Structures are given as C-alpha cells and as structure tokens.
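Re: beginner question about structure tokens

> Can someone show what the tokenized structure looks like for a real chain? I only ever see the sequence side.

Sure, here's an example I had lying around. Input first:
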Amino acid sequence: MIKELFQKFFPRQQMGQPEPQSHVIKDQSVGVSSLPVPFNVPSLFAIYKSNSWVYTAINMMVSSCVAVPLKIRGRATKAIISPTESERIGAVLKYPNPFMTQFELLELLFLHLEICGNAFWELVTDENKNLIAIFPLHPPSMEITPDPKRKIRNYTYTADSQETIFKVDDIVHFKYPNPDNEYWGLAPSLLMRRKAMLESKVDTFCEKFFDNDATPGGYLKTDRILSDPTYNRLRKRWLERHGGGANKFSLAILEDGMSFEPSGSQIAEADTSSIKNSIRDEIMIGFGVPPTLVGLSEANYASGRIIQAMFFDGQIAPRLRRVASCIDKDIMNRFDRNNESVFDTSVSPINIAKLSANSRVVARLYTLNLMKKNEARNLLGLSPVEDGNMYYTQDTSRKSPAPDDSGSTSSGEADTIEGGDAGADAEGGAGSGA
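And the corresponding structure tokens:
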C-alpha cells in the first residue's frame, strides 16, 4: 500500500529511474482527446507559396535568423567550445541526421514558426540514452494529448495514415505565444491571411480583365427591337471579333443605330496599384520586416544601418533567444548539463558594425587606465577572461603597443578579445550590440 502511494505521488522519472527506451507509447489512455492545431495550417502554407510578399517577408525573417550560427558554450565559463567537447551534443547539432545539416534544420524550424507558429523536433536516443539524431516533424500532422497533472501526456504524429505516439521527452516543441491556447502557438501568417486573400482577388480581377476583356465590359444599345436570329448573330460576331486577349485593341464597327455602353468598374477606376501597395505595406508591417530591407524604399547608409539594427534587436534577437532557450531546456539540460546552447550573434553583420564602433571608444578608455580589461569586455558584451581584473599598465601579457589617438591598433587588445555576443545575455546568447 505504501509503495503504491509512493509511486503515485513520485513518478519513476522523479525517482531517478530510467524511462523505457522506445519512443512509442503502446497504450494510449482512453477518454482523452488529442488537440490538433487549432487553425487551417495547409491554407497558411498555400499562402506562403502563392503570395510574393508573404514569401518575401517570411524569407527575410528566416534567412536573418539562420545567418546567426548556433553554438555550444560552457554554462559556467561562458566560453564557446568545439562540438567534440560537448559529449556528442555539439556533433549532433552540427549534423542532426544523415539527411540534414544544422543550417537546414534551423531553416526549416524558423520557416515552420513563421508560417504556423509551431515547430517540432524528434529526439532519437540509443540504448544508453545518448542523443544520436534529431528529425524535424511536420506541424500539421501533430496532435497534442493534454494531461491534467503533467499538462501534456503525449504527442500523436500521423504520417502516411499511420499514427505514432511519442513521449513528451522525445519531442521538442517550439512555439510562439498564444493568449488563447496554452498548447499551440499563434501563427504570424494567420494574421496576414485576409490581406493575402484580398491581394489574390485583385490579381484575379486583373487577370480576367486582360485575358477575357478585349474591350471594356459593357453592352450594345439600339432603339430597334431585335429578333432572336439578329440578336444571336450580333452577339456571336461581337465575341468573335472582340472577345479574349488576342483581339484586344481591335477596331469595332457597329451597325446603323447601335451604340456601345460600358458597364461595371474599369481597371483604371479600381486603382489596383494603390490597393496592392497598401496590402504589401500591411503584410510587411505585420511580419515586422522594414520595407527598406526588401528594397521598397531608399535609404542612405546611416539610416539603413539604424533600420537594420532595429530589425535585428526587435525581431531577430528575440526569436533567437526563444529557440536557444528551448533547445537549452529540452536538449542541453537533459543530455549535457555542463554546457548551454547559444546563437553567436557576434558574427551578425549589424553587431560587427556596432562592435567595431564601440570597441574603438572602449579600447581608448582601457589604454588610459580608466577601466579594467573585463570592464571593457563587459561594455562590449564579451565574456570575462581570467586575467581581466587589471588595468592596461598592469597587463604584462600585452604583445603590441597601445593604440594611437584614432583608436586603431595593429595586433593589440582588439585581437585578444575573443569572439562573443555583443549585447548577449547569459541565457540565450542572442542580443544586440553595446
């Protein structure tokens, strides 16, 4: 009796005992309904593949995110380590499975997030509970089974009409916040669906005008009463001579007593250009992509850098932090607690520019003994070093002279500062410059 109560309130995984090796749960509980994705995901994929501005906005967001490499660093030292030093986790993240690279895995991850707000990874382990592979899963094929105590009981994945039930620990669920659903993330493209459908209708209107309307829509008017044979003859002749795009601009010759009266809205009256431009701007704003970055407006170098920095700090960095923290929680904490996953934003072009500008000022303050080495590194968003608690004149490891008044140096302190994250925090590693 006591043993049963103990096992009831302290599950096996909390007692330190290993879970079963198989990823598939054979006995699914009866009476609990699975929760599919709460919106029409195939329609969102269709909009991404058919609307040029939705594709451009999502592609800009995805390409900007995957341009920042995912790396492993020591949880205590905050130093980037090689894949071989991370107990195989780094190697798996670099080559997640035999068919994909890390770049392709992350590209598909961010693509799924931008289209449907959710992304799933399957974690494959060996008999020793070591992570050996990561496979992406298609979000529309996934269902979540809730649990009153553990929140999620399992995941059900349907592929080729076959259902596979995964344990919670074998799935990594990335999602955007959703105020109405605690299980499924909110899709950014869901908000743009109506605008994309409106633009599709405008395109359809233009296509029909040029394909089927060789002359403006209207009717032939006459004061005479036409017999059926005369009416059919005039209609047939008019369609043969002026119907379809191939007959556009052909000369119309009307019979005596007849006139042409246009009807309906003409393409010039519809002002489709203004409508499409308004839809385009709303789609870009909805996805958080500045129009300047996709060539829709002109900007000089200075303003372009400011726009790029605002885009990175406001859109890219939070997405990188979200993904890095999720990987750290569900993968690193389980398979390699001594290290953590970070996105190395120091290689981001905008952070390189900001780091270059800030480093000249900070380096000058350091050489004037106004701050210690680690204080200077902290201002640049870099991790501390062991001998950093000293001023410039106390540093006996210097190999080159101090910079001149311009702040430049041949191979001095600027080269001794290791690569890091300008503006990065200790958790996700993604952030903006100093």
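Each token stands for a local structural state, so reading them left to right follows the chain. The CA atoms of residues 164 and 295 lie 45 Å apart.
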